[in-house]
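Fold these two proteins, one after the other.
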Amino acid sequence: MAKVFGGFLVVVALIAPPLATTEVSARAACPMRLDAVEAVAVDLVWIGGTGCGRSLIEVWDGSRWRVSWAGPASGGTVSAIAANTADEAWAVGEQWSARLDRSVPLILRSDGSAWLRVAAPWRSTQAWLSDVDVRGSEVWAAGEGPDARPLVIRWTGAEFERVPMPLLGSGSGGLTGLALTGDGRVWVVDGYGRAFVRSDAGWRESPLPDLPRQVAAARSIDAGGQLLAVGDTGYFPEAGPDTRALSTRWSGSRWVVDRLGPVGELDDVEVISPDRAWAVGCAGRDVGCYSNRFSPLVMRRNADGVWRSVPVPSVGWDSALASVDAYGTLGVWAVGRWVDRAGDNHPLVYHREGGEWVRTDPVIFL
């Protein structure tokens, strides 16, 4: 992620040739964590995260995985992927810059044949991007900028420009999720119980529901006929020994609690229709996913508007899901990580076509 505050300069450059890779067992001693999935069709699914110290994207062609893009070995991750079509996809995250000795935003664009690196509208200050959304020609991304300020950027068609958020200043923290709605509004959430919406009149705050002695900490937001934000109730010892998974829904005038789930957290939500959605995260004990022994949490919102937990196979010592996406009416993908007893991360990929969840492990490269 590179920076300039004021003028906005973006250069699109073809990335270096793909790195040579060696396929190894999914249990190889090469740490790998998945944070993003974008499912376009049964034979086109992108996943992103970090593996072997590199930010990476892999693609599913209907029968196997292959590495689609890999960053330098200095470290980094792909946090989110969004696509309009097979020929128009965007990915964001962060990349460690050895020259600057800090993390800088990572922005990638795919034309269906290759991922291209796109520069951010600044050059040298630490920042990262956590989410991206596309709707038609609109492309927006959000994260954390310099001085721990919220960061929002948008694509003009030729370059990215920074969109000021005057409601929040230095030290306010980063944004965890972003969603574009059909009425032209931009919604963002953070982990401190706050949601903000941008319309033609500018930004305004839209607080998440009040919870007794707790805070609705939103980690993801999505729109698709309805607007949902998911996260957890926050961890405060005086409020009890646990933190619970939480879904909130925009009623048209305010946010309301849609579902308080089990002990744990929800990290991503995919809205399919006005009455259907998927959400994923992790379920734990004691203080949710902050302690040992946590497992994948998958929840589905059915036509009756009720959230229900859906069982998935658990693997490893601890395991969690970070991202979910769906295509059509039956296809759903969810990705995350499982942790072995030594503390190393391994990739976790689940897929279903209307039936039971099946693991589809990706390539691990060295």
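Now the second one:
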Amino acid sequence: MKIAPYQPGQTLKEHVTDKRINEGDVESYLIKEVKKLGGVAKKWHARGNAGVHDRIVLFPNDEIWLVEVKAPDGKKSVKQREFHKQLYDMGYGRNLTVWCYEDIDTWLLMRQECIRAGAFPSLKYDAFQPVGTQLMTGRIKR
């Protein structure tokens, strides 16, 4: 399947319910968009550790993100929700889940805006929010 970018004017619901988009398409789009910004998105293989994120995204200047990739109709397992919440509770704000191209575009745009403003690029992430609402701006208390 050829990956097409999110279409302007398309609602999130229309985009997310497009059954033609699978997890591999979303993951390929993530890799391509991260590379455009000078980063890499490496596959995370953690044998015996269910629940870890799919990708470790590395940007210049020690910026590391943990990204879980899901198909638009995908659901997180209980172990994934528990691990993601554990990271969030520890104050690690650079972990998120993306379900569609728009989630990736929104995250990368917010990251760029933080960098332009001189802020620590991070996201408040709530592992229990529904699709399209998990991205919220915020700063992590250290």
